[in-house]
Amino acid sequence: EFQNRKILITGGAGFIGSHVVRLFVKKYPEYQIYNLDALTYAGNLENLKDIETASNYTFIKGDIIDANFINTLFIEYDFDSVIHLAAESHVDRSITDPLAFVKTNVLGTMNLLNAAKENWKKNFQNKLFYHISTDEVYGSLGASGLFTEETSYDPNSPYSASKASSDHFVRAYGESYGLPFIISNCSNNYGSNQFPEKLIPLFINNILKEKSLPVYGDGNYTRDWLFVQDHAEAIELIFQRGRRFETYNIGGFNEWKNIDLVKLLCLQMDEKLGRDKGTSEELITYVKDRPGHDLRYAIDATKINSELEWKPSVTFEEGLSRTIDWYLANQEWLSNVTSGSYQDYYIKQYQKS
Ligand code: NAD
After folding, report:
1. N or C terminus: which one in the chain shows less Cβ crowding within 10 Å?
2. What is the rounded distance in angstroms from the CA atom of residue 215 to the CA atom of residue 288?
3. C-beta of residue 219 within 8 angstroms of C-beta of residue 262
4. What mean pLDDT do residues 17-33 have?
5. Residue in 159, 173, 327, 346 annotated catalytic
6. CA of residue 87 to ligand 1 center, whole Å
7. Which residue positions does the secretion signal occupy (predicted)?
8. Does residue 63 have an active-site annotation?
9. Which domain holds residue 49?
C-alpha cells in the first residue's frame, strides 16, 4: 500500500466502475481518484451523485479511443496507476455492431497501455496497470468443469473476442516492455446501477410493468453470478495486494441456470409487490436463441480465495433481494437512464458556463 496514489479509473460512470470509484473515494481520502468516462448510453453520473463533491475526486469526460487526449491526460495528471474498466460491455450489441467493440475495448486499451508505458518507463516501480476483464474470454464450458487462470482463451462473441484481445495486449506489454500489470477475469455481476438492458434489471423492470420475460432458448444456460459490491471489494484487494504480472479469477461459486434465476426473481418480486405467488412466472416466454451463445460459465476462484482470503459477503438470495429493493426504490433513476434525461443533468452539473 502507498500513501499518495493518483489513480486513473476508466469507465467509472458505468455499472461496476461507479462502485469501484465510490469505494476508493470513500476509503482512501489520501488518494486522488480520477474518473475518466465518455458517458456513452451506459455511463451515468447520477451513479456517483453522493461523492461528486469529494475533494479527492475528479471527473474527466473523454474517450479512450483518442490517443492524443489520453497521452495529454497522463502528462497533465501524472497517474501512478490505472484501473481500466471502460468498455463496450453488452454481448447482444456486439453482435449487431462488433466494430464499436474493437474500437473501445481493443484500441482504447492500447491507447491506455501506450500512454502508461511512455509515462512510466523511466521507473516502473510502484506503477500498476490493472485491467478488468471477464470470464467470457474462456469460451463455453460443458456440464462440468470450471475456468481457472490457466484455461485457454476461446472467445465466441465479438464482445468476448475484443476483451480477450485486450487481455492479450496487456500481458504482451508486461512481457515486451516490463509494464507492471494485473488482470482479473470476473463472472456475471448484478446489483444497483446496472443499465436495464442486462438480464436482472431488465426483468425486474418487466415484472414491475407486467411485461413478458424473454428467456433465451430452453433457459438452461448457466451463469455464475457475483454481487457488484463484492466484485468492487475484490478489485480493491487485488489492487492493493495482488501480485504483479498475474491473473486472478473472481467468482462466488454461484452457478444458476437462467430459468431457475428468473423463477427466483419472480418469487422475490411477487413477495415484495404483494402479488399472489406464481403471478410473475406467467410472464416468462421462451425466445429464439442468440448466435454463439455459450452454454455455461463457471469460475474457479480458488486462487483469490486462498492467496488474498477473499470471498463474497452476501448469498445470492440476499444480494438479489437487495438489488430488487434498490430498483424499486430508484425508479426515477431507471426512467432517467432510459430516457436520456441524465444528459441534461450532466450539462447542468458540468457545463455551467
Ligand atoms: P458498463 O457498460 O456499465 O460501463 C462501461 C463504462 O465505460 C460506461 O460508463 C461508459 O460510458 C464507459 N465507456 C464506454 N466506452 C468508452 C470510451 N470509448 N471511452 C471512455 N469511456 C467509455 O460496463 P460494466 O458492466 O460496468 O463493465 C465494466 C468492465 O467490467 C468492462 O470492462 C467489462 O468487460 C468488465 N466486466 C463486466 C462484467 C459484468 O457482469 N457486467 C463481468 C466481468 C467483467
Report:
1. C
2. 9
3. yes
4. 98
5. 159
6. 4
7. none
8. no
9. 6-195+225-255+298-315+342-350
